[in-house]
Amino acid sequence: MKINKITGSIASAILAIGLVTVPTSIANAAPVEITYSNWQFAEPGRGEALQKLIDEYNASQTKIKVKSISYPYASYATTILTQMGARSGPDVVNLDYDVFLRANQARLVSPMTGIVAPKAGWASYDSNYNINKKRMGVTWQSTGYSLICNKKLLAAEGLTCPKTYEQFKAAAAATTKGSTQYGFAFRNTMTQTSGWWFDLSNFVFGFGGRWTDAKGNPTINSAAVQKAVTEYKDFFDKKYIPQGLTATEYRRLFWEEKIAMNLDNGSLPTIFSGENPGLKENLVIEKSPFPTDKNAQILIGTHINANSKKQVQGRAFVNWLVTNATQAKLMEAMTLEAAAWKSPPPAALVARAPWLKDYQKYASNGLLVLPVGAELATEEIRTIVLTQVDKILRSGVTVKDGLDEAQKKVKELLGK
Amino acid sequence: MLKISAKLTNWFLLGPAFLFLAVILGFPLLRGLQLSFTDTPTLNPTESTYVGLANYSNLFSSSSFLPALIVTIIYASIAVIGALIVGMTTALIMNRTAASKFWVRTFVTLPWAAPPVAVALIFLWIFNPQNGVANYALRVLGLGGNGTQWFSNPSLAMPALLLVTIWMTFPLTSLIFLAALQSVPKELSESAMIDGASSRKILWHITFPIIRPTIYVMTLLLSIWALRRFDIIWILTEGGPVEKTTTLVIKLYREAFYYSRLGSAAAMGMVGFALSVLLTFVYFRANKKVEESM
Predict the structure, then answer these.
(1) pLDDT at A5
(2) Closest alpha carbon to A140 in A13, A303, A311
(3) Helix (H) or strand (E) holding A143
(4) B241 and A CB contact within 8 Å
(5) CATH code, domain with B232
């Protein structure tokens, strides 16, 4: 009897302590940590600005804390997709559009229910993330390719930033001075396939070519693509570009004022002028100099990992990202010309980074570099085409033979 | 009774080692074999169906498999022969005189001690077409070097890759050979010398036969390492230019992690494993013949 009394007292005491401490522990609960991956954390200048924005978010929160994760761009997609495939990986991820499509097909990203649209409304390209009437992500950044000129180097040859292809080629020839200065630059090695695809696509789209037709049939050996690759090879053969260099290496040459022109996305003028502030006043932006107005377009989205155990917190973070206030701050921090909302960059930002206005002006010329109708095979098509272009550039294979071979292999791949 | 108890004790003592091997080696191997008969995607490993020998038949009928196999064999053969020759030469020099001093050995060991990724990154800088030391040295010597693209030129990529590989692997070879050379009884070479044998004859007829088992083991190990080498090839060339350095392992990596075809990649892994087993078999046969002839 006595034992029962003692047991009863202990149980009551435990219950009482529990009733008092549980609500207190809920109130004082440590914030839930979610991981967010983005390769841009590692970018010079912009990485720190992005981290500052995340720190600001963390400081404003009591329930969620965001931990940033970064991998170099070259290995980012492979690393993140492998982690996600293994049912792990970051809770919230930034992905290039083609990588997102692969992840989405493998059901590795969650539908974003309950995401509130920014007051300014969604940008038009944001509709790419509505798949089967479900929102599978939000735009992080959209940027096209434009011609970035160093007007000082061009002026030294009596030239201005070119507006036509003929002027562009002549300017590249005039500003190339052996191996000490180059007229232009693009990626041309298999260690840079992802970026090389964008650079080559600029030529192809600019000459009116496409990787596939509207029905998804490959058009890799079309007359327009052949013309584009012939011109691309001409730049390579005449050494108007530094052969064998990575984008990191030739972008450094650009900010060291050893390259006169670079066809690159809207993030680059920020990086160039960040690394060499003296260069800022010499930067002039023109539309992509090819015969047609089309150029490559980058679309980056933010997504929630389907296997994340912190879906609610992930969505809360994304909801914060797309508010008007955060969108404005994000544009400011990352010097973006276009994000998830449809508002243009704030006036103060444009005053600081005037090139954003130019990039915005040419935004409608952008095309995603995915082969239409064969988007999920982008990675393989890219390897097939670039291997043949590598042969055309370096092994004496003719443009026609190389592209015919690529066309044959892609047709086999797609079963066309 | 005592015999049975001794046997049980043996099994009991060997058990943990067997268990360790089964978990660390046996399970991944069997899992790899099982995967090779499925169409498992890397992005969704739980969704796989049995496809029989389809991965193997696709692999052998693929137009890119044979070139990759040839590149693998060329790379492995030259890397092994190069490491053996440079390693042996260094070991012979170190075995001779004061060159075997501590600092020399430490200096020779350094490339092997360095992590492969760091080695690859250093060589990327050395062979940089624009600012690399290699091109600078060639320019100073008047031997060209004007923007030579070591890792992007189809004729130069494989030799440059082999140079890096041999530089990285020869130190271990030389240390092992040095240990073997120092175990050769001095009396044998001294008596041969008294009988008028030249240094070359002593090397061929006394030293090499004694250290032959070590050479065989090193050949086997270097070959297996070369067949499965990934890190430096990926960092330096990613299999390019024009697939001149695409070995089976590089192809396997692309297949698994770029194209998300884990099953097909596992089949490639099994082919690589079969090659290693074949090499080991050849090694044991050769070793047995040597033992029989002694």
Answers:
(1) 53
(2) A303
(3) strand A138-150
(4) yes
(5) 1.10.3720.10
B242 in reach of chain A (CB within 8 A): yes
pLDDT digits (tens, 9 = 90+) for B132-143: 999 999 999 988
Q: Please tell me chain B's helix, strand, coil percentages from 3-state DSSP, rounded to the nearest 5.
A: 75, 0, 25
Bridge partners (DSSP) of residue A147 are: A263, A286
- Would residue B148 count as lying in a domain? yes
B160 contacts in A (CB within 8 Å)?
Answer: none
pTM of the model: 0.83
Rounded to the nearest 10 degrees, what angle do helices A223-237 and A399-414 cross at?
130
Query: Of the candidates B259, B251, B244, which has an alpha carbon nearest to the alpha carbon of residue B230?
Result: B251
For residue B235, give the nearest of B135, B160, B170 by alpha carbon. Answer: B160
Residue A128: both structure tokens together: 């790419």
Residues of B in contact with A380 (CB under 8 A): 258-259
B95 lies in some domain: yes
Nearest-CA distance B43 → chain A (Å)? 4
Specify whether the CB–CB gap between A257 and A147 falls below 8 A. no
CB contact under 8 A, B240 and A188: no
A383 Cβ under 8 Å from any chain B Cβ: yes
Q: Does A416 touch chain B (CB under 8 A)?
A: no
Alpha-carbon span A392 to B192, nearest angstrom: 61
Cβ–Cβ < 8 Å for A138, A301: yes
The count of structural domains within chain B is 1
Q: Tokens representing B33? A: 């074999």
B230 touches chain A (CB under 8 A): no
What is the rounded distance in angstroms from the CA atom of residue A63 to the CA atom of residue B120? 44
Burial code (b: 16+ CB inside 10 Å, e: under 16) for A183-205 equals bbbbbbbbbbbbbbbbbbbbbbb
Instruction: Give the number of beta-carbon pairs within 8 Å between A and B.
Output: 86
* Interface probe with A: pick from B61, B130, B237, most Cβ of A within 10 Å: B130
Task: Classify residue B285: in a domain, yes or no.
Answer: yes
A399 close to A224: Cβ distance less than 8 angstroms: no
* pLDDT of amino acid B242: 87
Q: Among A82, A103, A189, select the one facing B152 at the smallest CB separation.
A: A189
Q: Where are the domains of chain A?
A: 32-141+300-343
What is the DSSP pairing of strand A130-131 with strand A92-96? unpaired
Strands A64-69 and A134-135: unpaired
CA distance B175 to B83: 12
CA distance B107 to A173: 48
In a domain, B42, yes or no: no
Low-confidence ranges of chain A (pLDDT < 50): 1-3, 14-27
Pick from A79, A83, A108, A189 the residue to mutate for testing the B interface (most B CBs within 10 Å): A189
Give SS3 for B134: helix
Superfamily of chain region A32-141+300-343: Periplasmic binding protein-like II (3.40.190.10)
Provide DSSP, B266-287: HHHHHHHHHHHHHHHHHHHHHH
Round to whole Å and give the CA distance between B80 and B86.
Answer: 10
Partner A contacted by B254 (CB < 8 A): yes
CA-nearest of B233, B218, B222 to B116 is B233
* Contact between A303 and A285 (Cβ < 8 Å): no
CB within 8 Å: B242 and A108: no
Provide the ipTM: 0.78
Q: Which of B42, B238, B258 sits opposite A191 (nearest CB)?
A: B238
Q: Phi-psi category of A278—alpha, beta or left, where left has phi over 0 and alpha has psi -120 to 50?
A: alpha
Contact, B46 vs B225, CB < 8 A? no
Confidence of residue B98 (pLDDT cuts 50, 70, 90): low
- φ, ψ for residue A270 (rounded to 5)? -65, -45
Question: How many C-beta atoms surround the C-beta of residue B40 within 10 A?
Answer: 25
Amino acid at the residue B208? F
Domain that holds residue B210: 54-293
Shortest CA gap A197–chain B (Å): 15
